[in-house]
Automatic annotation (TrEMBL):
Pfam families: GspH (PF12019), N_methyl (PF07963)
Protein's GO biological process: protein secretion by the type II secretion system
Domain General secretion pathway GspH residue range list: 50-173
Family in the record: Belongs to the GSP H family.
Lipid bilayer topology: Single-pass membrane protein
Keywords, alphabetical: Cell inner membrane, Cell membrane, Membrane, Methylation, Transmembrane, Transmembrane helix
Name this protein carries in UniProt: Type II secretion system protein H
Lineage, top ranks: Bacteria, Pseudomonadati, Pseudomonadota, Betaproteobacteria, Burkholderiales
One GO location term (cellular component): type II protein secretion system complex
Amino acid sequence: MKNDALCWPSRGGFTLVETLAVVALLAVIAVMATPSFVAWHVRDQVDARARALVSTLAYARSEALRRGARVIVCRIDAARACLATAQPCGDGITDWSCGWAVLAERGGTLSLLRAQPLLAAVSISGVQTNLTFTPPAGQLIGTFRSFDIAPRTPTKATQGDKWRRCIRIAAGGRPRLTEGACGAAS
């Protein structure tokens, strides 16, 4: 009898043990990387929300100049109605993450120009009153204002000033975005 008959035919591929070892290694890597991906997503949400608010404030100021009318930026509820100071929106949030709207005032009536919807994952604290931009130079009624934007529920991976953004608005109405909390030195 030949020895060839006793040998199994050679096949390419991996054994079950090798496959399970690779799957286990991939699972460990995925578990270790998940907090980084979650933190990255949260930072993106904070950055996007901060840029959206800066854009809205710049738009409101320019519309006050262009229209020669008062333009108001206010916190809104789901029906896009302005909320009173410290009034919570539908899910109990009392900050600007409820969403906001830009309204032009003409002859005592308000018309909606732009609205930003709710994003509950990001906290936007600071000014609790409506912001009113006035012609002819687009000044903001009131004094220097600021908004602090941060993750609503910070985790160990998203703590600290590098996860926060600050928007400062001078009396002239121009917003400025900086990295870090509003109380931090910049």
